[in-house]
Amino acid sequence: MSGTIHDGTFVELTYEVTDRKSGHVLSCVEFPLGYVHGHNEILAPRVHEELEGKSAGDVIEVPLDGNRIFGPRDESLVFTDLIENVPEEYRQVGTAILMENDKGHTRSFVVTQVDDETLSLDGNNPFCGREVVFRLEILTVRDATDEEMKAGGAIGAQPDVDPAMMRPV
Fold it and tell me: Which CATH number is correct for 74-122, 3.30.70.20, 2.40.40.20, 2.40.10.330, 3.30.2310.20?
């Protein structure tokens, strides 16, 4: 059994991300997120660095500059279209829509506003242009099994993770 987080340990944690300025929660993991430390780095590298050496029961806060990780906000990725041009299943605030440009590159856009006539989309990462704080609660730290090491995380688990946080940095 391993007491602290290091390469090869299986870690389960929950987290929430808040806007440092407003204090509003921007994202959270509602169910424990499991990964193998050093083999499946799914959060920002700075977060993984801060987790190193921590134990189950620890709660840590990691401030991050969203501009540095995700780049500055790009207003050309924000647009509004007539609602009649958008399929009905996408007409709800918070809906993610994967779009492809003429070069075959894909980007996720989020519906940010809907009214009777228009719908607005934003292709920026929700953390760019913000200073955020990750608050992580470490639930489990143990040696990873060989199967978990190969898979990079829990076997058969499907955590409820905000897709915005799954982007490589």
Answer: 2.40.10.330
